[in-house]
Amino acid sequence: MFNNSTYGIYGSTLNAQRSKAGGILSALLSPVSFQLLAAVPNAPELSSAGYRFSGQPSNRPLRIVIAGGGTGGHLFPGIAIAQEFEARNSATKIIFVSTGNPMEKSVLSKTDYELRCITAAGIKGRGIWNQLVSVLKIPKGILESMRILKNFSPDLAVGLGSYSAGPVIMGAWLRRIPIVVHEQNILPGITNRILARFANRIFISFENTKSNLDSRKVQWTGNPVRNELLEYSDGQISQESNHTGHRLLTVLIIGGSQGAHAINMAIMEALDALKDKDHLHFIHQTGEADEQQANEAYRRNNIRCTVQSFFDNMAELYSRADLLICRAGATTVAEITALGKAAIFIPFPHAADNHQVLNAGSLSDEGAAEMIIEKDLSGEILGEKIAYYAAQRDALNDMAAKARQFGNPDAARNIVDNCYELVD
Fold first, then answer.
1. Per the structure, how many domains does the chain have?
2. 262 and 205 together in one domain
3. Which of 196, 210, 216, 298 lies at 20 to 30 Å from 238 by C-alpha?
4. Long-range contacts: 287-292, Cβ < 8 Å, 24+?
């Protein structure tokens, strides 16, 4: 499914970046003996406690720690996994452990899951001084994590891959708690590359990720998508039409919780040149900085729109959308493919190891999406794409159907099945 030509363009550069980052990280971690921990032998495929699976999973109640967050791309798959565990047995107890940033607190406050906080900070791409400060926080984070683990006594620790997962997963390893990690992107991030040696299972979203990790532990499961997105029926939203009764093309633009300024500016530029504006409706998540300017651009062009800095009702918006214009974070890609939506990806150019380009490329190479590299982005190009798909609904539907072939709505179920195999 993944065209190796896409990886070939970036592969040598990415390998060089990873090698350089690994060297810097190893040097930095020595003062706090983290390097010694990272050098331990790989965890066996089954834990030393002898957890083995026979027959069907019992679905007994478990106590689960889910570690990591930081961004929606890490946190939302964790929520999807938690929902599946609870669906198996309502007596299961789940806590999330992370740094407790405002996004995590806001999202988890709308769920029944408790968030417990530890000390942690990112390392990669922060400059030598900030990296050193971050490394010095690791021992405190591990001790805080071990205290939480001791009090909660989990059956299993699940790592989501962000830097805040590191201390928790290392604490779980020290306490001999079975560990699984989930990697959302095609290229594993630096945290998961380190934590993979501690894990009993490694769950991946893209089949091609196997080549970067210990194949004995790897299970290709897909990237979990939250229940509310999967369960939202298309029938709950009436097809939008204009005053003539013609079907509108609904374009959903999402640039992450903070918006995406480059996408916002290109869209605003494209509005001036669009024709047949009466057949278009835009739903645009702008972020706070561009909300007012975007609203004015739509008003000036007399185009139907719903513009907000942030949306909470993503299930409804996905259902209404005919075409998405968005970044290519792994969770966004998973949601689009699971729901079978047509998309124009504009990868974030500063994503670690340029992984968003690879995420998007896995679909665009197969005609399941379009990709515009940000340096090539302009209002003219984006306007032409929107106009084309407004006029060519068959092409739009074909792209959506191909995207659905890449989706895996059973990803959370696959992961939870595997977790029960590990602990039963």
1. 2
2. no
3. 298
4. 287/255, 287/256, 287/257, 287/258, 287/259, 287/260, 287/261, 288/258, 288/259, 289/259, 289/261, 290/259, 290/261, 290/264, 290/265, 291/259
What kind and span of H or E run contains 37? helix 34-38
pLDDT digits (tens, 9 = 90+) for 89-105: 999 999 999 999 998 99
246 and 339 housed in the same domain: yes
Rounded Cα distance, 124 and 108, in Å: 26
Q: What is the pLDDT of residues 23-66, one digit of tens each?
A: 444 444 433 444 445 445 555 544 333 333 444 557 899 999 99
- Residue 2: inside a domain: no
What is the DSSP secondary-structure string of 87-138?
A: HH-TT-EEEEEE---HHHHHHHHTSS-EEEE------TTS-HHHHHHHHHTH
CATH number, residue 268:
3.40.50.2000
Inter-CA distances, 350 with 339, 346, 357, 373, Å: 27, 12, 10, 12
